[in-house]
Amino acid sequence: MSRLGVFDVSVRYGKVPALTDVTLHIGEGERIFISGPNGAGKSSLLKAISGAVPTAQGRIELDGDLLTGRPPEAVARLGLSMVPEGREIFGRLTVEENLRVGTGIRRDADAVEGDIAEIYRAFPILAERRHASAGALSGGQQQMLAIGRALMTNPKLMMVDEPSLGLAPKIVDQVYDTLVALQEERGLTLLIVEQSSVRAGRVGGRMILLRGGQVVGEGDAAAFADKDALTEAYFGKTGKEAAE
Ligand SMILES: Nc1ncnc2c1ncn2[C@@H]1O[C@H](COP(=O)(O)OP(=O)(O)OP(=O)(O)O)[C@@H](O)[C@H]1O
Predict the structure, then answer these.
(1) Which residues form the ABC transporter domain (predicted)?
(2) What is the pTM of this model?
(3) Interval 84-102 mean pLDDT
């Protein structure tokens, strides 16, 4: 059984199809990149998984539990957490207050303190700045905080929407180093939306390419960093064929 199973899922906004018959599976501990051009349906896929938008068709399961039809809080309770695009940090709250947001859904309140201590061990910069307002952190530190906050619910699957957005390449390197280290330490299962196939190829993992709301390619991320593979997936044929 897959950790995450997406079976023939379609999403529509009114009459606009955003995803059509998308099927994908993620194994426990796996790292998957979702890539594709603007409007490909990447955010719609994440929203459908997290329960933020309804599916028009198909079903989604996490460790065999049906997610489809459940509200986001119920999906979160079943073990899914999300690092949203733009991070959605509460700028006026302190770093530690941000980490505590969302822990209310947990039944094991006693474990929260231990988890906070563990996040601080993984992210020493957050420990250092625990009483600072989150709005005062740099973009990279805010991304770390968003990741730390998502870990606080002990997720079975963590989804990260465009972690590179607005960050300098060196900082993006640090963010990915952190994600990979967390995965190695905790056996975390990661689904990452990443526009840059080159970046995904460098980090490594499996890549699923979306275009026009459909899966148009799947394979080793490093192979997709190859320009021809991308051209083919985006435009339907390779640069060479297009020239003929
Ligand atoms: N709230 C909405 N109402 C109507 N159409 C929408 C809505 N959100 C997305 N769409 C449309 O659904 C399709 C998929 O959009 P989606 O945002 O999922 O793609 P994306 O790959 O995440 O794009 P981007 O990289 O620009 O965020 C697009 O055609 C988009 O215009």
Answers:
(1) 4-237
(2) 0.88
(3) 87
